[in-house]
Write a structure and sequence with these properties.
alpha/beta, Immunoglobulin-like, 31 strands, about 20% strand
Length: about 700
């Protein structure tokens, strides 16, 4: 029997007096708690939650203990055109479940509607195969909870996939490869520390359900942007070792990252759920209170707003939905040891159908006032596919944003010279200094611009300089998915090549792109595997490839010149130089025209003269001179840039300059700086860095 219990906290909460269950379903007529055996396959008992307080159904099971497996059947009207899709024949996952039993298999038994008559409710019971929750105790607070640990100007992000990072790593025990525990192994963290990474940015780790279409083709949503359990770590990344759970192993991994002085950020998907559109499965929210949790179309509430391209959008304008998201974020920050979040398709979080995107929407206000979450690292993907969905630079102060215009400009500058789509010196300089047009307002700092050349979505760095077109046939979409052409490659030969000249050119371009990324003002982000020369064989949308296409090849991977360590060592040198050169990571905006002799940044032509307005529209080479305040750095720094096809001779400013890095191997003396005199030669597609 159930006693009334309490309407808070939401979810299944073990306590000495039993397990309290609470679920927000304000328009439901009744809610049944269904209890299962440990396998989750055999339903043993159904109990009606005895109380409903302010739309939360709740009850206390005195006999309940940790480990209990459960789900809900929610009763109410079936009226899709009014937004109501209740179906007690479908067992529903608690959205607050902290551990999930089972896996969605794509069967039409999960459909709430009759497959042949979508307006009718499907009466087949799916309890035996449905997703279920397991009641687990709280982990206890992380120390310190939800606190960014790295100074904003020192941060170097590294985007990685938990499984792909270690699935083929020879330094990780075989049983731990592809798991949270594998990511915590010393061999993995040693590598990241040597690179100079400060912040691990994990692709989604919350429990996902793969799309039925992918399952039918024998594929999965490898990237993980299809969440159904916002409190449950994805069990597919758990080693299964006795005495551990997915949550405990994730927390141990977070502790290992923190022990190295690094931060942990996770990619979160609160813009949509895995239930897709009106033809999709009924797994959780759709059957709990469809009209509450989702944005429905005003003209027909049987249909969903689709600003995400995945079929539905969560409605964070509803207080209970906002509570779900905020509670989930606090759980990951306070209990799981996460230091920050990258929000997928973030404009959706501040949208409604009437007003569109609003940076003062309830979600942003709730984050700003929260004493824990306001101190975490907050990163937006600032676009969705809805009307007016591109919002770069429009997020609130304190937020960082992925800057795709930085990516496009740097690719156009280094890889498109002499071709359509080339970027000029003016665009290059604007992005090099953190895109002030987008970010220099409302007190925002240059670090708000997350600069990247490559990310999980698109070509890897090696493929960027190796392929002219996408090669996505393995995705099962007739090579129609992803961007059609690589508008960056200028190496002349597509795909693998044995030609020494082609390989050398590809290596040179990779080094130039890595250098400009780590020398630019803003927050740099590296893509995992770019330092290894990882290739996806031209697949620029490998979201469904859980195989050697996406798993980093630690043995056998190499940069185009054939050396697996060369690019990694070069990245490590770049991050070390960034740490040493305060002006390169300045958190203040540079004045447009600093007076002579004062700290600032100066733009010079190759002949040493200041750039004129006309100079910004011609040419492919310039010098960038930094002079920092004496309290920040004792010397001056010089970055010489040549994206052209010919060697350029630079006249240097007055001073005793020493070359400390070059992207051209012939001019790079490693740890032995070279005195330059009053001039320096910079070969084609190269950067040199000098200091006094």
């Amino acid at each position: 029997m159930l006693s009334p219990g309490t309407p808070f906290p939401l979810g299944a909460t073990p306590a000495p007096q039993g397990v309290n269950f609470a679920i927000a379903a304000p328009t439901a007529e009744s809610v049944e708690l269904c209890l299962f055996d440990g396998t989750g396959q055999n339903e043993q008992q159904r109990l009606c939650l005895p109380a409903c307080t302010d739309g939360v159904w709740h009850g206390l099971l005195p006999a309940g203990r940790k480990g209990l497996v459960y789900g809900y059947r929610v009763h109410g009207p079936w009226a899709p055109h009014d937004g109501q899709r209740f179906n007690p024949a479908k067992l529903l996952l608690d959205p607050y479940a902290r551990e999930i039993v089972g896996r969605y298999d794509g069967s039409d038994l999960f459909l709430g509607h009759d497959p042949a008559r979508p307006d009718q409710r499907d009466g087949r019971d799916n309890g035996a195969i449905a997703l279920k929750g397991r009641a687990v105790a709280a982990m206890g607070a992380a120390t310190p909870p939800g606190h960014a640990r790295i100074a904003s100007g020192d941060r170097v992000l590294y985007e990685l996939h938990v499984r792909g990072q270690t699935r083929l790593h020879p330094g990780v025990p075989a049983a731990l490869r592809g798991t949270y525990a594998g990511l915590a192994e010393p061999a993995v963290l040693d590598h990241l520390q040597r690179l100079g990474v400060t912040t691990l940015s994990l692709m989604p780790v919350q429990h996902r359900a793969d799309e039925q279409r992918l399952l039918a083709m024998g594929l999965t949503n490898y990237w993980g942007y299809n969440t159904i359990g916002w409190f449950a770590p994805e069990a597919r990344y758990w080693s299964g070792r006795p005495g551990t759970t997915p949550a405990s192993e994730f927390r141990a991994m977070a502790d290992a990252v923190h022990a190295r002085g690094m931060e942990l950020v996770i990619d979160v998907v609160y813009n949509h759920s895995a239930e897709s559109d009106e033809a999709g499965p009924t797994l959780s929210l759709r059957g709990i209170d469809n009209a509450l949790y989702y944005h429905l179309r005003e003209d027909d509430r049987a249909l969903y707003e689709n600003w995400t391209g995945t079929g539905n959008c969560l409605n964070l304008g509803e207080p209970r939905v906002l509570q779900l998201v905020m509670d989930s974020l606090r759980f990951w920050a306070c209990e799981m040891g996460v230091d920050g979040f990258r929000f997928d398709l973030a404009p959706v979080l501040g949208r409604d159908a009437a007003t569109g995107f609003d940076p003062r929407a309830p979600f942003f206000a709730a984050i700003a006032q929260d004493p824990v979450l306001s101190r975490t690292l907050l990163i937006a993907e600032p676009w969705d596919i809805g009307p007016g969905g591109y919002r770069l630079g429009e997020f609130p102060p304190g937020w960082l944003e992925w800057n795709d215009r930085y990516r496009d400009t740097q690719r156009g500058f280094w890889l498109r010279q002499g071709r359509d789509g080339a970027a000029g010196l003016g665009d290059f300089a604007h992005r090099f200094t953190a895109s002030s047009t987008q970010f220099a307002h409302h007190g925002r700092a240059p670090v708000a611009s997350v600069n990247f050349i490559t990310a999980h979505d698109g070509f890897t760095l090696r493929d960027l300089v190796s392929y002219e077109e996408r090669h996505n046939l393995a995705n099962g979409e007739g090579n129609r998915d992803g961007h059609a052409h690589n508008l960056s490659n200028n190496c002349g030969v597509e795909g693998p090549s044995d030609d020494a000249g082609v390989l050398a050119k590809r290596s040179r371009l990779q080094r130039a792109l890595l250098a400009v990324l780590l020398l630019s003002q803003g927050t740099p982000m590296l893509l995992a595997g770019d330092e290894l020369g990882h290739s996806q064989q031209g697949n620029n949308n490998a979201y469904c490839q859980d195989n050697e296409t996406t798993w980093l090849a630690w043995i056998g991977a190499s940069d185009p010149a054939g050396d697996i360590t060369r690019t990694s060592d070069f990245v490590a040198r770049l991050t070390a130089l960034r740490r040493e050169a305060a002006p390169l990571r300045s958190t203040r905006w540079w004045p447009a025209a600093p007076p002579e002799g004062t700290p600032g940044i100066r733009w010079l032509r190759p002949d040493g003269q200041p750039m004129t307005p006309d100079d910004w529209h011609v040419g492919t080479a310039l010098a960038i001179a930094f002079e920092s305040a004496a309290t920040e750095d004792s010397g001056a720094w010089l970055v010489l840039v040549n994206a052209g096809a010919e060697t350029v001779n630079f006249t240097l400013p007055a001073g005793t300059w020493r070359s400390c890095l070059s992207t051209d191997p012939a001019h790079d003396h490693g740890a032995s700086p070279e005195a330059l005199g009053d001039a320096a030669e910079v070969p084609f597609s190269s950067i040199r860095v000098a200091r006094t």
